[in-house]
Design brief:
The chain has 3 domains: 209 residues, Rossmann fold (3-Layer(aba) Sandwich); 129 residues, Rossmann fold, CATH 3.40.50; 131 residues, Jelly Rolls (Sandwich), CATH 2.60.120. 21% of the residues lie in helices and 28% in strands.
Length: 490
């Protein structure tokens, strides 16, 4: 079978840099042209790469100047040459490499070939001790897996310092060291030793019989705001949120998704922006872990304001995912679709997806002796999942209050059942019993959550209803609306 070889796309960056003054190695670095880079590189590669290589360039620049239009150009180059080559290598500066890899991962629909980004912390064209040459050679090998008898990686990925990372899980962590990148919430895809070893269990599946296509429309009106103590006392956030050009805001929040919530005007501006269609996505500033909105009161207020969990997205993936989804959105229906899709895993960029269905405001309250039943009629769940795919199931009650008639310093006891209808017998510990819960009184309206993930697994039917049993008729529980929230893997 004919080997199609590899297309190498040269954008510049450190890997293509040399001193401006050849006689002075300490002079400022400049990026050389494609012609010079190819001429000098081929001499080094001719004894190592026995198959066809073609070099092209959309222009040479420092990667800090990379933007949406450059991503589109890179996508168009690969799309135009997709059938001609077996794989693709993009030589790229490290500063924005993770952004480019994330953007391309969303833009490439049904990708079935390797697209490997790499670069250097130390340029190889004039440094004997460097990382650039080995990075480039290994990336070319990964992009032509049949020649080297290694497993296919049909993803946009980053090869750096002997490790292969999923592009949209990668972030730059070191400004000068050879270990420039990390994938804090997902294992590496491969590594280098005596041979290149690909970890197949971590690789995306090859799309079956679907034609590759480029979807390159991107919305530029996305902004990211980093919270720090004291920012809530300035007018910067409030004034930023008034900007009508903004279509989405990413909050880099504290911990599991918390922001200062004592500034009433800031909360009012968030609510106003949300009401006119601005999307708020919450990320954690922590490199490891994920956002869990509602775990603390401050993040529960964000939920009430319409904010969405970014799960464990990197900032690079969050920005480019929003740009991509909003690029196809038209009007309010398009924005609503983006709000529904943003916390769904598309191409391996986050550990799980979140699905929520509104259970409405209707309920039936039944007093039976000393207990109180609250029956919540279900709503259709159009999500074909088996129990192995479900990580967590939550019942969420918006603007809920919970109080005791006698005293408010002891918990309210709940038992929760699924598909137990008014008049049915209650079998604690039976198949329909989702668990017993203690909740302290909530006197001001807020979110109240119940983790109803059963140890025995979940089976999602097309329709599910819930019954909350409160063990005292004098305990009061009220709420505005209820929803079922599923955390699942594809």
């Amino acid at each position: 079978m004919e080997n199609k070889g590899v297309l190498v796309i040269y954008t510049g960056g450190t890997i293509g840099s040399v001193p401006k003054d050849p006689e002075d190695p300490e002079s400022p670095q400049i990026v050389i042209s494609l012609q010079e880079f190819e001429e000098r590189t081929r001499k080094l590669l001719e004894d190592h790469i026995p198959f066809g290589l073609k070099f092209v360039s959309p222009g040479e620049y420092d990667s800090c100047n990379m933007g949406v239009d450059n991503w589109k150009t890179l996508g168009e180059i690969i799309s135009a040459n997709y059938d001609e080559f077996g794989g693709f290598v993009i030589l790229h500066g490290t500063d924005t490499m993770a952004y480019t890899a994330s953007a391309l991962s969303f833009m490439f629909q049904n990708l079935g070939k390797p697209v490997v980004l790499t670069g250097a912390q130390v340029p190889f064209l004039h440094n004997l001790r460097n990382d650039g040459f080995q990075n480039m050679v290994a990336a070319i090998q990964i992009a032509n897996p049949t020649w080297y008898d290694i497993d296919l990686v049909p993803e946009v990925c980053i090869w750096f310092n002997n490790s292969l990372y999923r592009g949209n899980r990668t972030t730059k962590i070191n400004a000068s060291g050879f270990k420039a990148f990390s994938s804090p919430n997902y294992p590496i895809l491969g590594e280098n030793g005596e041979d290149i070893k690909i970890h197949r269990r971590n690789i995306l599946k090859v799309p079956s019989r679907k034609k590759f296509r480029l979807q390159s429309k991107m919305e530029k009106g996305v902004v990211m705001l980093h919270f720090f103590p004291g920012i809530q006392d300035s007018k910067i956030l409030e004034e930023t949120l008034k900007n009508r050009e903004i279509k989405a805001v990413i909050f880099l929040a504290f911990g599991s998704g918390n922001i200062p919530t004592q500034n009433i005007e800031l909360l009012r501006q968030i609510r106003a922006a949300n009401s006119r269609g601005v999307i708020f996505l919450i990320l954690t500033q922590c490199p490891i872990g994920r956002v869990e909105l509602g775990l603390y009161e401050t993040s529960a207020q964000l939920l009430d304001l319409g904010a969405i969990s970014g799960v464990d997205l990197t900032p690079e993936a969050a920005v480019t995912k929003l740009m991509f989804l909003l690029g196809e959105a038209e009007g309010i229906p398009g924005v609503l679709r983006v709000k529904n899709e943003i916390n769904k895993n598309k191409v391996g960029e986050q550990s799980f997806s979140i699905f929520s269905t509104n259970l409405g405001i209707e309920r039936e309250v039944i007093i039976e002796g000393e207990i109180k039943r609250i029956y919540i009629k279900g709503s259709p769940i159009n999500l074909p999942l088996n129990e192995d795919q479900i990580n967590k199931v939550m019942l969420a009650f918006r603007k809920a209050t919970l109080s005791k008639k006698d005293k408010n310093d002891s918990p309210v006891i709940f038992d929760i059942y699924i598909d137990v209808f008014p008049g049915d017998a209650l079998e604690k510990g039976g198949n329909n019993h989702l668990g017993s819960f203690k909740k302290m009184p909530v006197l001001s309206p807020n979110y109240v959550f119940f983790d109803i993930t059963k140890n025995g697994g979940w089976t999602i039917d097309e329709f599910a209803s819930f019954t909350l049993v409160i063990k005292s008729t004098t305990d009061l529980f009220d709420y505005v609306s209820a929803e079922l929230v599923l955390y699942y893997t594809e």
